[in-house]
């Protein structure tokens, strides 16, 4: 046998450790078996999984509102009542009237 050192990502190591425990093997023996399996299979990338289930989810959260990006505060205010709406208006007014910050540092 040849001794070598390999670094694994945390998730990889935990998976190997669990497999080794389940099959009552040492971690080293489990790694050797996994390497043998990989060598028999070759280094071809794994086939892509069917993504149709994920694609079926696309659009399920659609609000039907086409200006949500610009008016999100207004819509949230509508959800939380008049008090929140006033706060949103006040904040919008402050943003419009606020002077832009100086970019040059101190004067």
Written account of the structure:
- By secondary structure, the protein is mainly alpha-helical.
- Among the domains are: 10-41; 68-97, no CATH class.
- The protein is 59% helix and 0% strand.
- The protein has 5 helices and no strands.
- Helix 1 (10-22) crosses helix 2 (27-41).
- It is elongated, with a radius of gyration of 29 Å.
- The protein starts with 9 loop residues before the first helix and ends in a 10-residue tail after the last helix.
- The mean pLDDT is 79.
Order of helices and strands: HHHHH
Number of helices: 5
Strand content: under 5%
Oligomer: single chain
Describe the global form: elongated
- What is the first-to-last residue Cα distance? 72 Å
Largest sheet: none
What descriptors fit this protein?
single chain; 107 residues; mainly alpha; elongated
Characterize this entry briefly.
This protein has 5 helices and no strands.
Topology:
Layout (H helix, E strand, L loop, with lengths): L9 H13 L4 H15 L10 H6 L10 H13 L1 H16 L10
Helix pairs in contact: 1-2, 4-5
């Amino acid at each position: 046998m040849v001794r070598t050192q390999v670094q694994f990502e945390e998730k990889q190591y935990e998976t190997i450790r669990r497999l080794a425990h389940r099959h009552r093997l040492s971690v080293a023996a489990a790694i050797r078996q996994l390497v043998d399996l990989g060598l028999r299979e070759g280094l071809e990338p794994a086939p892509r999984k069917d993504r149709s289930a994920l694609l079926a989810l696309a659009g399920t959260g659609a609000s039907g509102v086409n200006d949500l990006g610009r008016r999100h505060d207004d819509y949230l205010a509508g959800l939380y009542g008049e008090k929140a709406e006033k706060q949103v208006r006040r904040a919008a007014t402050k943003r419009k009237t606020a002077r832009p910050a100086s970019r040059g540092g101190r004067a």
